[in-house]
Amino acid sequence: MVNEVEQSVPLSSRISGAIWATMMATMGSMAIRDEDIVVLEAPAVKRSEAVYLPAIVKGLGVTMRHMLHAFGRDGKGKYQSVIQYPEERRELQDVLDGGMHKANFRGVHRLNKDSHERVKCVACFMCATACPANCIHIVADESPWDDREKYPKKFDIDELRCIYCGMCEEACPCDAIELTPEYAITGLTRNEMIFDKSKLLEVFDQTIIDKPM
Ligand code: SF4
Ligand code: SF4
Fold first, then answer.
1. Same domain, yes or no, for 120 and 75?
2. 12 within domain boundaries
3. Which residue among 29, 139, 183, 198 is least crowded, i.e. fewest CB within 10 A of its CB?
4. Residue span of the structural domain in which 178 resides
5. How far apart are CA 152 and CA 113, in angstroms?
6. What is the pLDDT of residue 5?
7. Does residue 167 have a pLDDT over 60?
8. Element (H, E) at 141
């Protein structure tokens, strides 16, 4: 470690004169030469481009395409966006036809279990800290197991406040919280939509076949 006295002495004084001269010569030879500098000229702008007409027309075209698509037509008379739910389900369709990809769909959360059927969470609060909707509430307690210090005594997620961004999943250091392909959840009251630890572990049991860890 460099001590305080060494830090206060200039670098050039701490290196012998010959080595310092060699270093400076090398750095001098690395300077960019004038003939290596390439000056780029801005491309000439046509009159039509200067008033942004092509860009405006192109933008309107994109808007029109999306509008037609939203009405269920892709311009070829084919219905693409409308599905007859629940008879038709997005997970049964191809992604290119508007279906969903189960592996990266962000639906309702689950708390993962380890190989001993214990909750994997170590109550580090990383997910709650990362959550932009502030919908994760954890109460930590001393762990009853030897392999970790803490575990979540309480773990609640308000599924109605959640924006399903996946930040909690990204922040978790031990893959304990995960968003599943499950989206068909209902509740008659707001309280029913606050998923507690047991419910989140239940979701794990129900979705582990669809989305293995
Ligand atoms: S998905 Fe996003 S909003 Fe929902 S709990 Fe996780 S971090 Fe919060
Ligand atoms: S779910 Fe993951 S990030 Fe959240 S408290 Fe548990 S271990 Fe930490």
1. no
2. no
3. 29
4. 109-207
5. 13
6. 39
7. yes
8. strand 136-142
At 3-14, the pLDDT tens digits run: 443 444 444 444
What is the CATH number for 125? 3.30.70.3270
- Going by alpha carbons, the residue nearest to atom 7 of ligand 2 is 121
Domain annotation covers residue 78: yes
Q: Using CA positions, which residue lies closest to atom 4 of ligand 2?
A: 127
Q: What is the pLDDT of residue 205?
A: 95
CA distance 95 to 114: 31
Positive or negative, the CA dihedral 14, 19, 25, 26 is negative
Q: How far is the CA of 127 from the centre of ligand 1 (A)?
A: 8
Tell me, what's the pLDDT at 10?
Answer: 47
Give the tens place of pLDDT for each residue, 137-162.
Answer: 999 999 999 999 999 999 999 999 99
Q: Looking at the structure, do residues 74 and 136 belong to the same domain, yes or no? A: no
Ligand 1 centroid to residue 122 C-alpha, Å = 18
The domain total for the chain is: 2
Report whether 166 contacts 106 (CB < 8 A). yes
- CB of 156 closer than 6 A to ligand 1? no
Residue nearest to atom 3 of ligand 2 (CA): 172
Closest residue by Cα to atom 1, ligand 1, is 164
